[in-house]
Amino acid sequence: MKMLKTLQYNFLKINTIGTNKRCLWQWVDDTFNSLDEDRIKEIGPNLACAEWLMKNGAQVRWKGCKEFVSHYNCLPNITSCNLGQFLIEQVYAGKEASISHFRI
Q: What superkingdom does the record give (predicted)?
């Protein structure tokens, strides 16, 4: 919901001011990659991080699991589980991920 409000606000701001000097990509990047504190409070930092990673094409392996999860819809259902049990142990962000340029 917060993202939709941000999109609406920024769209109206751009169209009403008309002299926005920021490029479209920067606006999209800021809107979709901004930190969502409400989402972190709702589902916890590990699931929120996993959501963001998967939206950007990465795969996540939970602590105690052998397989990577690569599809956003395969994340745990937040209403039917203990969210604290899901801890990110490993992330794979290959060349197909939009965040593959980040290295540790």
A: Eukaryota
